[in-house]
Amino acid sequence: MATHNVHSCEFEVFGRVQGVNFRRHALRKAKTLGLRGWCMNSSRGTVKGYIEGRPAEMDVMKEWLRTTGSPLSSIEKVEFSSQRERDRYGYANFHIKPDPHENRPVHEGLGSSSSHHDSN
Q1: Bias category Basic and acidic residues: which stretches?
Q2: Residue 109's pLDDT is what?
Q3: Which of the residues 5, 21, 23, 93 is marked catalytic?
Q4: Known catalytic residue: 23?
């Protein structure tokens, strides 16, 4: 069964948004609004994400991402992309994805058992 009037978009928040609980506050705000999707720290020092939900709640979240964030964050700009209307939700809830640089060995490339080789 299709769900009607579901909108979605990707976002990327620039500024001081890592190490200031931005993702945790975004999670709370998205859940409060009934939005679904995810957010994560990027290797570029930004917070990226995807949100889906009803248009009115999406607008509130977009404004929050542009102007509010977490108490210690400093937002320079937000870019929204891939905005579209969907037939149904793609996610069951909103969650925080792990950082792309987590779970890497601390001394990557050291030792004889490493399969990583630099090509420089």
Answers
A1: 96-107
A2: 43
A3: 23
A4: yes
What is the total count of domains within the chain? 1
**102 is a domain residue:** no
Q: Using the structure block, give the residue that is written with the tokens 């890497």.
A: 104
In the chain, which residues have pLDDT < 70? 1-4, 101-120
pLDDT of residue 5: 86
Q: Is residue 101 part of a domain?
A: no
**5 in catalytic set:** no
The predicted pLDDT at position 74 comes to 97
Which range of residues forms the domain containing residue 75?
A: 6-96
Q: Give the span between the Cα atoms of 15 and 105, in whole angstroms.
A: 28
Catalytic residue among 24, 41, 44, 120: 41
Provide the CATH number for the domain around residue 63: 3.30.70.100
